[in-house]
């Protein structure tokens, strides 16, 4: 499982997919999310603008990404 650190309150699902390297473009992220290929905390999520917060996990194919908070202000 890969861990991604964010220093904001949240990150949008499509942006997280690009940032983490799960896909290479926003268009691809949109396609994957809207086709039900991405899971948020174990459940399919089709909302590309979904706010992802620290503690959430994203799954796409055999890859899992956990979002953690930046502890250094």
Along the chain, the helix and strand elements come as EEHHEEEEE
The strand line-up of the biggest sheet is 1-7-6-3-4
Tally of contiguous helical segments = 2
How many β-strand stretches?
Answer: 7
Structural class, by secondary structure, is: alpha+beta
The value of Rg in angstroms is 11 Å
Report the average pLDDT across residues: 94
Shape: globular
Reported for the largest beta sheet, the result is: 5 strands, mixed
Q: Ranges with pLDDT <50 over ≥5 residues?
A: none
State the end-to-end distance: 25 Å
- Regarding quaternary structure, what we see is single chain
β content, as a range? Answer: 25-35%
Helix amount: 10-25%
